[in-house]
């Protein structure tokens, strides 16, 4: 499973439907950020050699991540349930998430409700 961190406009990420980030907004953001590649799928190989693939319309990879491709490492940003989600982000990915949150008028919040960075400014 892993620990998830969310970019959300809601007071609590679990309530993202009450203050949604739309898929359209997420796709529009990615068009402005040349560091992203919209793949729509992610693929990984397990230690047993099995290939696992997941598909999602808003699934993108942050290609400027310093560990991109090292040991098959990728920084995947997924869109689901009116929010953007990253599993097990490190400090570098969290900084990128805060940049995106600021651009979308949203905040970055962990599964346990902790918030990262400055509060987001309201969207105009």
Q: In which range does the helix fraction lie? A: 10-25%
Straight-line N-to-C gap: 36 Å
Broad shape: globular
Radius of gyration in whole Å, from Cα?
Answer: 14 Å
Beta-strand content: 25-35%
Catalogue the unreliable spans. Answer: none
Distinct helical segment count = 2
- Please summarize the sheet with the most strands: 7 strands, antiparallel
Describe this structure in words.
- The chain has 124 residues and is an alpha+beta fold.
- It has one domain (4-116).
- Helices cover 19% and strands 30% of the residues.
- The protein has 2 helices and 9 strands, in the order βαββββββαββ.
- A hairpin with a 5-residue loop joins β3 and β4 (51-55).
- The radius of gyration is 14 Å and the shape is globular.
Summarize the structure.
With 124 residues, the protein is α+β, with helices and mostly antiparallel strands. Helices cover 19% and strands 30% of the residues. The strands form 2 sheets. Strands 2-5-6-7-1-8-9 form a 7-stranded antiparallel β-sheet, covered by helices on one side. It has a two-stranded antiparallel ribbon with strand order 3-4.
Main features:
124 residues; 2 helices; two-stranded antiparallel ribbon; seven-stranded antiparallel β-sheet; alpha+beta
């Amino acid at each position: 499973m892993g620990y998830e961190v969310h970019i959300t406009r809601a007071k609590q990420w679990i309530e993202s439907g009450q203050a949604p980030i739309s898929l359209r907004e997420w796709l529009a953001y990615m068009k402005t950020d040349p560091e992203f590649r919209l793949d729509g799928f992610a693929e990984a190989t397990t230690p047993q050699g099995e290939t696992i693939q997941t598909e999602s319309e808003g699934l993108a990879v942050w290609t400027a991540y310093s560990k991109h491709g090292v040991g098959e490492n990728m920084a995947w940003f997924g869109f689901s349930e009116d929010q953007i989600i990253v599993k097990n982000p490190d400090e570098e990915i969290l900084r990128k998430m805060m940049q995106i949150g600021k651009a979308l008028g949203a905040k970055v919040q962990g599964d346990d409700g902790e918030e990262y960075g400055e509060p987001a400014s309201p969207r105009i």
